[in-house]
Design a protein that fits this description.
It comes from Chitinimonas arctica. One of its GO terms (cellular component) is cytosol. Pfam families: Phos_pyr_kin (PF08543). The protein is globular and about 45 Å long. The chain is built from 9 helices and 9 strands. The longest helix is centred in the last third of the chain and has 17 residues. It binds 3-hydroxy-5-(hydroxymethyl)-2-methylisonicotinaldehyde. The site of 3-hydroxy-5-(hydroxymethyl)-2-methylisonicotinaldehyde has 15 residues, from strand 1, strand 2 and helix 8.
């Protein structure tokens, strides 16, 4: 019998355009040689131009979907995107407490790219208090990092990513990878912080298009490289390299944003360009 590949339990909302959310995670994780277990936390109605509607799954259903699998299989990592409600967040906090040895990769999604909200202030505080203490690596963009680091908009405004990372680490997250896509800099610089402070900074050519699902791709890629046995700094480096290539090879299936091509390598692309 063939041995199963590393297995990753994914909590996310479904975006039926497969640009972001659960389908993006499944594509990324499969592309990187792992087996995804997609637990639906919410469904959205959206296309590449934006979100129309949003329905949250009942928390008991989220809990049961995950706990049946946790009993059945050896799970190498848990990856979390949109949770959708306080009740779902609590379910995840309980699971994380029950399975402390499974690395938890948390992508704090507060809103869609077009600004529709997935999390309110209460959920952001609950994320700090209930989830960060169980988080192995958090993957916010710089705006999400500042929002998590402080409730005070004035304080968020001038906050350096180093300060935001320090505070997020103090809330309990072991590592924090802060992406620089939203910063006004010519290249995109992503910084990884850990128990010893700044671990690494990688800079990437800023690509011109507007992409839907780049954050989901990056966080899922980190989960997959960790599940494949890589140590954190190397996993983060490889995940950025993979994500940059998915963006470089992105396509535009509709009238809105570009979608990262998580399977670029299967289409014979990706060898020629160098991002870093
Ligand atoms: O890209 C963040 C994201 C995550 N999950 C779902 C989404 C989005 C953005 O639209 O729809 C379900």
């Amino acid at each position: 019998m063939t041995q199963a590949p590393p297995i990753i339990l994914v909590f996310a909302g479904n975006d039926p355009s497969a640009g972001a959310g659960l389908a993006a995670d499944v594509l990324t994780i499969s592309s990187l040689g792992c087996h995804p277990l997609p637990v639906v936390t919410a469904v959205t109605v959206q296309d590449t131009t934006g979100m129309e509607d949003f329905l949250v799954m009942e928390a008991d259903w989220v809990s049961d979907q995950a706990r049946f699998l946790l009993e059945d299989m050896q799970i190498a990592a848990i990856k979390v995107g949109v949770l959708g409600s306080m009740e779902n967040l609590t379910v995840l906090a309980e699971i994380a407490a029950d399975y402390p040895d499974i690395p938890l990769i948390l992508d704090p999604v507060f809103a869609t790219g077009s600004g529709d909200e997935f999390a309110d202030d209460e959920m952001i505080s609950a994320m700090r208090e209930l989830l960060l203490p169980h988080t192995t690596i958090l993957t916010p963009n710089s705006l999400e990092a500042r929002r998590l680091a402080s409730d005070d908009p004035d304080e968020q405004d001038g906050m350096s990513v180093d300060e935001a990372a320090l505070r997020i680490r103090q809330f309990g997250s072991e590592f924090v990878l802060i992406t620089g896509t939203h910063e006004n800099t010519p290249a995109v610089s992503n910084a990884l912080f850990g128990p010893t402070g700044r671990v690494r900074v990688d800079s990437w050519e800023r690509l011109p298009a507007s992409y839907h699902g780049s954050g989901c791709t990056l966080a899922s890629a980190v989960a997959a490289f960790l599940a494949n046995g890589m140590e954190m700094s190397q996993a983060v480096r490889e995940a950025q390299d993979y994500t940059w290539h998915t963006l470089k090879n992105a396509y535009r299936p509709g009238m809105g944003q570009f979608i990262p091509d998580r399977l670029f390598w299967a289409r014979g692309k990706g060898e020629e360009e160098k991002g870093a």
